[in-house]
Automatic annotation (TrEMBL):
Pfam families: Glyco_tran_28_C. Residues 239-289 form the Glycosyl transferase family 28 C-terminal domain. It comes from Nostoc piscinale CENA21. This is UDP-N-acetylglucosamine:LPS N-acetylglucosamine transferase. Keywords: Transferase.
Amino acid sequence: MTNTWLIYALGGGWGHLNRALALGRIAAKERKVTIITNSPYALKINHENCIVNYISEQAGFFATCQQVREFILNTQCDRLIIDTFPRGLGGELADILPQLQPIPRILIHRDISPDYVTAKNLRSFVAQNYDKVIVPGEGQDLPLADLPNVQHTAPWLIRNCEELPDKMSVRSHIFKVNPDIPTILVCAAGNASELSFFARLTLHLQQNFPHCAVRILAANCPTDIPEALWISHHPGIECLAAADVVVGGAGYNTVYECAAVGVPLVAFAFKRLYDRQAKRANQVYRVKNLPQAITTVSTLLDRIELVENLSIPSYINGTFQALHYISA
């Protein structure tokens, strides 16, 4: 055995890569962990002791699929872990998975569209090609959650609660604000095309809440945003934990990280080809437009200001449960 785990984490945003790093950094303490991804964010962050094989987002569909296939077929590993897409993001895994029968194959089953499951006959495909399926904190109401080889864990988080930096220090040194005033954080972790929307949102929040510190967390500074309002920091959970209110999308990381650190999330449910943000947004304060967001943030700030909350978050990190299950 090579004592190597290979994690497939294709997808253009933060979510797939962040989940892979959350698991990989724990697994890498005892083995080699290689992550294959096409997320442009891979170029901007700490790889957490994992080896990251980056496929350029400019490569194009066919070239990306071909590189993935060649890399997987030519990499010796004793665990193959596929995030979200059983057949691969472009269907590129469909015919090579049967060739990898001797290698335990594990699917990370984040919520996906039932239409996608039906169209690609994924129930049968997963049953035939995966030894184990792990649901990383998304609950029972998932298209494949009733398969016999499914294991549920708590959400996967890239930091344990005891690893989070002090809230006041983050505000002072990363946010660069007075740590004693209410702080609103816009989490621009979605697609690059949504950055301009989050920039407008940030400026609206600053105008409506002059007594608050407003910051935007994004990989790149949006156009028309003063650089003083911009934060570029990974992992984002360290910043979310230091805010009083977070405003963002209803993606996997944003929802479960805010829930873990106990910070209210005001969320827009963005349309995705496979992910059901609208369903996940039912767990948070869902809004549909900027005026609703302003009103909801105002209501939350009124509640928060009544009680100063400096308590240290306490939560379970599901990556440890997953590590045990995958290793077995």
